[in-house]
């Protein structure tokens, strides 16, 4: 039986982004577990700001279709978000909004199991953005979002040179959350009884 495919991406394309560091670390940890990890960057999925007129004239951009394909082909999705003014950054919200407008077989937001990560140089670890992302995915799009989530506070100091979290217990919590994601993704995809 195949291993569950887990897609991972961050809501920032900034050089040195902490949320991208968390996405990369999650992909590294996933590669050590029983799954097929796929790490992408939204830098490779450039989209204009959503505009209903643009959609009516041209339909969703190719990047939105590609992102939607990545999601529908995944059994699990780990999204690592930064926090902008207590919310999800526009890059991530825009990508989700466009992907939600792509028509195709199946529902890319209802098929995989989602898991949320958040980072911030501040003390709350992007908690408020994580709650907004949960609302968008679960309430807005009907996604199954794991209760377990990962928050990295003090992100500027949190990562070691090799990309691991300096705090071993935090890294173990990340690992445990990813194990749950794999397990739930496999169950939902019918890969495990
Ligand atoms: C417009 C803007 C608003 C921000 N608002 C918050 C905020 O509400 N809470 C927070 O913890 N950090 C906030 N920050 C700081 C970001 O957490 C910080 O820039 C972080 O490095 C961005 O994520 P990244 O490293 O993944 O690019 C804000 C940054 C910007 C540019």
UniProtKB/TrEMBL annotation:
It comes from the Bacteria. The lineage of its organism: Bacteria, Pseudomonadati, Pseudomonadota, Alphaproteobacteria, Hyphomicrobiales. This is NAD(P)H-dependent oxidoreductase. One of its GO terms (cellular component) is cytosol. Residues 4-156 form the NADPH-dependent FMN reductase-like domain. GO terms for molecular function: FMN binding; oxidoreductase activity. Pfam families: FMN_red.
